[in-house]
Input
Amino acid sequence: MAARSAWQDVPRLRVRQFASLAMKEVPELAQDILREIRREYPGLPLVVDESGEPMALVGIRRALEHFVEHLARGRGGPSVHPEVFQDFGRGEVLQGRSLDSLQAIYRLGVRLAWRRLAEIGQEAEIPPPAMYELVESGFEYLDGLVAQSVRGHAEAFARQAGERLRLQRRLMELLFSEHRADPTDALTERAARIGWRLPSQVAVAVLLRPAREAVAPAVGPDVLLDMELEQPRMVVPEPDAAGRAELLRRAMTGWSGAIGPPVPPAEAAKSLRWAATAVRLMDRGLLPSGQVLHCTEHTEALVLLPPEELIEDLSRRRLAPLAARGPAHGRRLAETLLAWLETRGGAPEVAARLGVHPQTVRYRLRQIRELWGDDVDDPDRRFELELVLRAQRLRGELAEPEG
Output
C-alpha cells in the first residue's frame, strides 16, 4: 500500500492559507534569493529579458510560484516549467561553463526558499510531518530544475559542436585545396572562427579505421580531425613541438595510417598527398601496417615506389644485361651490384654486407664488369642502377643487407 501523504492530511483551509501567505512572499523572496546568489557568485553575468528584468529573477519567481500553486492544489510532486531553466542550461554553454556552478546556485536557492517557507509553515500551523514532506518535494523539484537545465545545456552544446564542426571542415577544405595565391589571410580568418591559432607548420595524417564504428582518436582540441570520410583526416599543428609525437602516439592507440611531412599551413595539400601515398603503399604491403607511421621516416620508399611506370622503364633498360642470366642467378648478381654501389668497398666489405665469402663476391663482380662494362664507372649510370635496385629491394624482390 502506498504511504499516506501527510501534506494531503492537512485541512484544505490551512493549505490555502499557507499558499496565500507564501505567494505574497514570492516577489520579495525571489529578490532575496537573487541577491544572495549574486553575493555568493559575484562573477555571474546578469542577463535581462525584453522588459529589462533579469532573467534569473524571472526564473526564480516562476519556480516559486509554480511550486506554491502546485502545493495549493495538492497534486503530489510538483512538475517543472521547462522553458526558463532550459534557457539557463543553454546560457552556461554560451558562457563556456559546465553545469556545476548552476547546480550549486539552484541548491542555494532551494535552501533559502525552504527557510522562508518553514517560517510561513509555522505561521499557518502546518504540522511538522507535512513540512518534512514539503522539504522532500522541494528537493524533488530541484532535481527537475537541474534535469531541464541539463537538457538545455546538452541541446545547446550539440548545436555549438555541430557549428564548430561545420566551420572546422570548411577550414580543412581550404587547407587541403591547391592554392594559386597566398591563402594565409583566409586561413587565419577561418581559423579564428573556431578559436584555432594558425600554426607555423602543420602535418596532415590519413587514418585507417580499426573498425567501422571505432571511437575517434583522443587527440587534443588543437588537432583538427574529420571523421566523416572513409579514411579520416587529421591536421596536427606544430608537429615537431616537444612532446607532440608522444601525445599522438598515445592518442592513436589502435589506429593506423600515415602522417605527412611538416609544411607551412598554406602547403598542407602537399603533406596530405604524401600521407595518402603512404597509406596506399601500406595497403599494398610495401610499408609497415598496423601503426601510424611518419612519412619523414620512410622517404626512400615514398620517393622510389610511387612512380612505378618510370622506375619500371628505367629498370628494363638498366638491368637488361641480367635478362639472360636466369632469375636466381640474376637476383644474386643484382644484390651484389647494389651492395657494391652502396659501399663502394672491396670484396671483403661487400661480402660482409651480403653474408657470403669474399671469393664469391670477386667472382660476381667480374661478371658484373663483363655485363655492364664502362657503365659501372659512369656516375650517372651508377646512380640510375642504384635507384632501380633500391626500388626492387623495397618491393621485396631483393634481400635486405645483413649489415
Remarks:
- The first strand starts at residue 202 and ends at 208.
- Strands lie at 202-208, 224-226, 233-237, 256-259, 292-294.
- Residues 26 and 61 are 6 Å apart (CA to CA).
- The two ends are 86 Å apart (CA to CA).
